[in-house]
Amino acid sequence: MKFQADKSDAQSITGYGPGWLAVDKQNYAHSLLLGSHGLLKEWNCRKFEDLTAEHFEELAKLDAEVIIFGSGSKNRFPPAAWLKPLMARRLGLETMDTPAACRTYNILSGEGRNVVAALLLE
Questions:
Q1: Could you report the per-residue pLDDT of 37-61, keeping only the tens digit for each?
Q2: Nearest to residue 115, comparing CAs of 20, 53, 52, 38?
Q3: Theoretical Cys-Cys bridge with 117: which of 76, 102, 105, 107, CB 3.0 to 4.6 Å?
Q4: What is the pTM of this model?
Q5: What is the CATH number of the domain that holds 114?
């Protein structure tokens, strides 16, 4: 029996470190919204303390089955009230530090899941 890795057409995170990450070998030094179905844009926040309810309203408008929130260098949770727009659309939000979010995004997108990563780069 021959085993072969599945080839995914989704964008993947090809590297990361403090203050940067690479998507398909292109480096970025700002927070990003990244989706397995082609979304790639700057997320207008520099650090966790910059986040507002509007950032999570923006996430609720995205076409995704799950959203991974990379909260920076450590795992921090947004206020529950900010998640109401996501809950109203029955969207799952998984919170973890940004390096873990990068790894999780790659696994889920590689499985063909419709996933969005909201990644804070501090």
A1: 999 999 999 999 999 999 999 999 9
A2: 38
A3: 105
A4: 0.91
A5: 3.40.1230.10
The closest alpha carbon to 97, from 118, 122, 117, 72, belongs to 72
Asked whether residue 115 is assigned to any structural domain, the reply reads yes
HEC per residue, 9-55? CCCCEEEEECCEEEECCEEECCCEEEECCCCEEECCCCCHHHCCHHH
The whole-number pLDDT of residue 100 equals: 98
Strand partners, 67: 93, 116
Residue range(s) defining the domain that contains residue 65: 30-119
Q: How far apart are CA 26 and CA 14, in angstroms?
A: 8
**pLDDT per residue as tens digits for the range 61-74:** 998 999 999 999 99
